[in-house]
């Protein structure tokens, strides 16, 4: 027995969230054309302008080609084979939780996302999205008292059309890229949060996304607007059943921070990663971008990516306001045959803008992990600063780690710092911890947790522990 | 307590230990000395269960159990502790967290309740004092950025906290100045008890002035060539190892 073999064996832990909820779905016919979009818009009871926006995006999308520059390989995607709308059959917008199908409540309980009155997480408001619809949003009243709007985006479009219309597409335009255009055309649900001037959001906001139906894609759209001097911390989580075919998840997240506002956006991504042979799993092709529009505004992205067959995402910040701050903290784990191409874009436009990038990539088994980042300092961005740190950890000898840091500086006053490291989790480290009484899998977890510490400490308290557990689970298993 | 019989060990296909016999009783301190490459560290690592070595022949029993059949963590949980010659750094994990995890892993295996951070801190304060450290070491990552001497002290701190039944010190004295040496020896002596034993692997007699052994063994070319009382260490210091070699060849 070599330790390397035993460490590798630990990545072969079955996915724990792969169950299917047996619930009848109301499915739109497979395929994508203008009628599909009209159908979605109608189901959502949307105003005309929304439909027009979707159609505009769709028409652009038909002229675009799928990006293939990422360091990942996968077969062709048949966009006409996907169902673009799926909702539990009995589903209708409900006034109170008592009216929600118990099967749905049960599903979220099973996932550890309690939304029923008795079991709600203290201090966290949850919007639960199941396939194409939001099934429940908790603590709406508490938030309303503070003036915070936290709603499924489909409801927000109906109830706060002016707000949504003003900001939707202002950070990620409808034709931004292939997947963003697709999302703009067919997005079904997602969350909308609006924090008024000077308000510190009294609760953590959280959305949990669950894909359930077969042969569907999930296309959610999230929009968060933080007015002057406000603060909000938002967390998203997600999971999906284990299925043999790949499913597409193409989301868009837009954040807007005005003067002195702070948005902290955390993601714990745990989509189904596929089986040991790389069959099935989610294609996670996501566009996330924040705009620090106001002076001294701050947007901070923290992501813990453990799921998905393929991850393609680059949460970035446009630092437009003077003295605005962008942050990106990331842990990406790839094991089995997972592939991740992820990183960030920091675009410095305003003066004295500052960005920090801390990326930790962990590759195990046959996983391939790529960090791809762009730091761009525009001409007018006097006194801009960036600090980047990209660390990779390899577990076993069949995995890979790759780093593509792009730097584009057009202002000579910029200060750029970049650090990078690659390490291999060693037999000696594992043995050392086992000699002190720790089981091999606990030893691996401890080493990995230490490696990721700089990122974990950025997560909201309630979720830091969850993230660490999730990481242990994805790296745990029978020890040879 | 520990009974090693005819132990043969290979690493990368090369035989390093060629029939080691050794018996350590509770309450005793044994020193293992010998020239470079004689197999001293291999013996220490094999006792702890390092996966890079394979045992090809022989038996080792520890408190009546077949040690060779136990995983490294089971050996640790049974009370075997190895102070590493080259302690490994664990980035991002504080000494305090690591020590508590180790203590609790062992307590759990014994069916004892785990210690919470506050209870554990009380235990720790006392042990820290014994090795002349302040609290600042608790919040530093395990061995990360530690000097050679600090790493060795950290091994001894771990030993003091874990209170093993059998401690194996693998060249813990190398790289220590005289004050650190005295501190380390003090911590080892504090652990001396009728129900515990210590094996000290060392190149130098110097350490044995402070940790006085009951038995001294000389390991030459993978075998114990000679055993004796503490005066054997002095003799080795004065005469070197060469005078023992021919006997080893004859044995």
Task: Give a description of the structure.
The complex is a heterodimer of chains A (480) and B (251). Chain A is α/β, with parallel strands linked by helices. Chain A has helices at residues 3-9, 34-43, 48-62, 102-110, 140-145, 153-159, 161-167, 178-186, 427-435, 440-456, 461-474; strands spanning 25-27, 86-88, 124-130, 133-137, 149-152, 191-195, 204-210, 221-226, 231-239, 246-249, 252-257, 262-269, 281-292, 298-305, 310-313, 316-319, 325-334, 339-348, 354-364, 368-377, 385-395, 400-409, 415-424. In chain A, strands 5, 6, 8, 10, 11, 13, 15, 16, 18, 20 and 22 form an eleven-stranded mixed beta sheet that branches. Chain A starts with a helix and ends in a 6-residue tail after the last helix. Mean pLDDT of chain A is 85; it is low at 1-12. Helices cover 35% and strands 25% of the residues of chain B. In chain B, a hairpin with a 2-residue loop joins strand 1 (2-11) and strand 2 (14-24). In chain B, helix 5 runs parallel beside helix 6 (178-191). The radius of gyration of chain B is 18 Å and the shape is globular. Chain A binds chain B through residues 1-3, 426-429, 431-440, 442, 446-447, 449-454, and chain B through 48-52, 71-73, 75-77, 81-82, 84, 87-88, 90-93, 98, 101-102, 105-106, 109, 141, 158, 162.
Lateral strand order in the biggest sheet of chain B: 6-7-8-3-9-10
Terminal CA distance of chain A reads 7 Å
Considering DSSP H and I runs of 4 or more, what fraction of the residues of chain A is helical? 10-25%
Supply Rg of chain A. 22 Å
Q: What kind of assembly state do the chains in view correspond to?
A: heterodimer
Beta strand count of chain A = 23
Shape estimate of chain A: globular
Main pleated-sheet profile of chain B: 6 strands, mixed
Shape of chain B: globular
**Count of DSSP H/I helices of chain A:** 11
User: Largest interface: which pair?
Assistant: A-B, 26 and 29 residues
Number of strands of chain B: 10
Q: Major sheet of chain A: size, sense and barrel closure?
A: 11 strands, mixed
Mean pLDDT value of chain B:
90
């Amino acid at each position: 027995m070599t330790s390397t073999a035993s460490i590798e064996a630990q990545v072969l832990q079955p996915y724990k969230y792969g169950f299917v909820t047996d619930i009848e779905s109301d499915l739109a016919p497979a395929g994508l054309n203008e009628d599909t979009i009209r159908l979605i818009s109608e189901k959502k009871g949307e105003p005309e302008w929304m439909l027009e926006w979707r159609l505009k995006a769709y028409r652009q999308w038909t002229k675009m080609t799928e990006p293939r520059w990422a360091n990942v390989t996968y077969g062709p995607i048949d966009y006409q084979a996907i169902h673009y709308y799926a909702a539990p059959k009995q589903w209708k917008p409900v006034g109170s939780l008592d009216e929600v199908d118990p099967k749905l409540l049960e599903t979220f309980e099973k996932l550890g996302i309690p939304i029923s009155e008795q079991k709600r997480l203290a201090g966290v408001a949850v919007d639960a999205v199941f396939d194409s619809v939001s099934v429940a949003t908790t603590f709406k009243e508490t938030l309303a008292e503070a003036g915070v709007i936290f709603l499924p985006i489909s409801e927000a479009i109906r109830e706060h059309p002016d707000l949504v219309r003003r900001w939707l597409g202002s950070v990620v335009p409808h034709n931004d890229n292939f997947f963003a255009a697709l999302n703009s055309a067919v997005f079904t649900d997602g969350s909308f949060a609006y924090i008024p001037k000077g308000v510190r959001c009294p609760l953590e906001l959280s959305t949990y996304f669950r894909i359930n139906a077969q042969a569907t894609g999930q296309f959610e759209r999230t929009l968060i607007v933080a007015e002057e001097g406000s603060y909000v911390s938002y967390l998203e989580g997600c999971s999906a059943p284990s299925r043999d075919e790949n499913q597409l998840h193409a989301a868009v997240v837009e954040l807007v921070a005005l003067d002195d506002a702070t948005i902290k956006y955390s993601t714990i991504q745990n989509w189904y990663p596929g089986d040991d042979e790389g069959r099935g799993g989610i294609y996670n092709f996501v566009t996330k971008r924040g705009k620090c529009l106001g002076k001294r505004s701050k947007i901070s992205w923290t992501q813990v990516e453990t799921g998905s067959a393929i991850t393609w995402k680059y949460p970035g910040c446009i630092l437009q306001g003077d003295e605005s701050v962008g942050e990106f903290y990331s842990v990406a784990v790839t094991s089995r045959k997972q592939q991740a191409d992820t990183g960030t874009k920091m675009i410095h436009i305003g003066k004295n803008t500052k960005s920090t990038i801390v990326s930790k990539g962990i590759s195990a088994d046959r996983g391939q992990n790529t960090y791809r980042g762009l730091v761009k300092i525009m001409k007018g961005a006097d006194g801009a600063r960036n600090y980047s740190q990209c660390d990779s950890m390899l577990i076993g000898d069949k995995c890979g780690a790759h780093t593509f840091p792009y730097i584009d500086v057009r202002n000579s006053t910029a200060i750029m710092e970049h650090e990078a490291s690659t390490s291999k989790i060693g037999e000696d480290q594992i043995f050392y911890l086992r000699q002190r009484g720790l089981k091999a899998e606990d030893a691996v977890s401890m080493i990995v947790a230490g490696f990721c510490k700089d990122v974990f400490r950025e997560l909201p308290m309630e979720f830091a522990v969850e993230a660490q557990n999730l990481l242990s689970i994805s790296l745990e298993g029978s020890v040879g | 307590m520990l009974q090693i019989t005819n132990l043969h060990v290979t690493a990368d296909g090369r035989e390093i230990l060629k029939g080691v016999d050794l018996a350590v009783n509770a309450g005793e301190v044994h020193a293992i000395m010998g020239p470079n490459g004689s197999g001293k560290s291999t013996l220490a690592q094999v006792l702890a269960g390092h996966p890079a070595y394979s045992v090809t022949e022989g038996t080792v029993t520890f408190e009546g159990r077949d040690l060779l059949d136990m995983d490294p963590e089971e050996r640790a949980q049974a009370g075997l502790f190895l102070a590493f010659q080259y302690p490994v750094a664990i980035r991002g994990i504080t000494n305090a967290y690591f020590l508590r995890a180790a203590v609790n892993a062992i307590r759990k295996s014994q069916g004892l309740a785990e210690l919470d951070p506050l209870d554990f801190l009380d235990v720790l304060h006392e042990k820290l004092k014994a090795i002349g450290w302040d609290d600042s070491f608790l919040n530093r990552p395990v061995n990360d950025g530690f000097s050679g001497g600090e790493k060795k002290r950290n091994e001894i701190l771990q030993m003091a906290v874990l209170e093993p039944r059998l401690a194996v010190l693998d060249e813990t004295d190398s790289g220590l100045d005289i004050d650190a040496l005295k501190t380390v020896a003090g911590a080892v002596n504090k652990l001396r008890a009728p129900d515990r034993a210590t094996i000290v692997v060392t190149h130098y007699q110097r350490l044995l002035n402070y940790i006085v052994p009951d038995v001294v063994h000389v390991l030459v070319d993978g075998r114990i060539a000679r055993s004796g009382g503490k005066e054997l260490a002095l003799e080795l210091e004065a005469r070197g190892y060469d005078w023992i070699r021919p006997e080893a060849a004859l044995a």
